């Protein structure tokens, strides 16, 4: 069971916390982590790219000149791919790029991502992040005290002031325990959790 330090918003160590090995201490499955990242990025794709093939481009019904005797190469249509305004040979068509991952695979990938952050000492636990007002400067000060720049901060429920305070800080993203994903965990250098979110994650994924 991993034991990590707990800090306050001033950046001072105020205690320690034991992290569940079932969530934060599993063996990292790189294949599932990679598949989860590809899955998330693929599911975001609109898949609306479209170009016309020679059968869809208007015009070109008449043979431009006779087959023989002109000195030109033989042509059957002015909408063939080699002509300006012609169709595209293997034109892209709208498609769905998404694919399905099993629930167990998703959970295992998320646990692997969390465990990798613990192994790399890139997980910071804060006792509490609560704001009485919306103030970007206050959130920036917390990151400065923790010596963190690019971070994913997982906040508890009903913490709207903190979420909005972090919105304009470059390289920082906030999430809730039910919205965390493998891609964001890996994208940001540091993962910041509160004691409340650690308990919630362990309750859901243990």
UniProtKB/TrEMBL annotation:
Domain of life: Bacteria
Keywords: Ribonucleoprotein, Ribosomal protein, RNA-binding, rRNA-binding
Cytoplasm listed as a keyword: no
GO cellular component: ribonucleoprotein complex; ribosome
GO annotation terms (biological process): translation
Region annotated Disordered, chain positions: 44-85
Any GO molecular function: structural constituent of ribosome
Residues that span the membrane, as ranges: none
Function according to Swiss-Prot or TrEMBL: One of the primary rRNA binding proteins, this protein initially binds near the 5'-end of the 23S rRNA. It is important during the early stages of 50S assembly. It makes multiple contacts with different domains of the 23S rRNA in the assembled 50S subunit and ribosome. Forms part of the polypeptide exit tunnel.
Family, as annotated: Belongs to the universal ribosomal protein uL4 family.
Assembly notes: Part of the 50S ribosomal subunit.
Protein's name according to its UniProt entry: Large ribosomal subunit protein uL4
Source organism of the structure: Suipraeoptans intestinalis
Recorded name of the encoding gene: rplD
């Amino acid at each position: 069971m991993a034991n990590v330090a707990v800090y306050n918003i001033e950046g001072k160590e105020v205690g320690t916390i034991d992290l569940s090995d079932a969530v934060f201490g599993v063996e990292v499955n790189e294949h599932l982590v990679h598949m989860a990242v590809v899955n998330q990025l693929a599911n975001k794709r609109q898949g609306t790219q479209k170009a016309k093939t020679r059968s869809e481009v208007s015009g070109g019904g008449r043979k431009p000149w006779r087959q023989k005797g002109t000195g030109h190469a033989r042509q059957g249509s002015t909408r063939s791919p080699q002509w300006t305004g012609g169709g595209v040979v293997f034109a892209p068509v709208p498609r769905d790029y998404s694919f399905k991952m099993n629930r167990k695979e998703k959970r295992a990938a998320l646990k692997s991502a969390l465990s990798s952050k613990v192994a790399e000492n890139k997980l910071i636990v804060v006792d509490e992040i609560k704001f009485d007002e919306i103030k970007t400067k206050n959130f920036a000060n917390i990151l400065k005290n923790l010596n963190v720049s690019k971070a994913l901060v997982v906040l508890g429920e009903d913490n709207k002031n903190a979420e909005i305070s972090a919105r304009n800080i470059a390289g920082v993203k906030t999430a809730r325990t039910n919205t965390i994903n493998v891609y964001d965990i890996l994208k940001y250098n540091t993962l910041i959790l509160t004691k409340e979110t650690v308990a919630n994650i362990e309750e859901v994924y243990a």
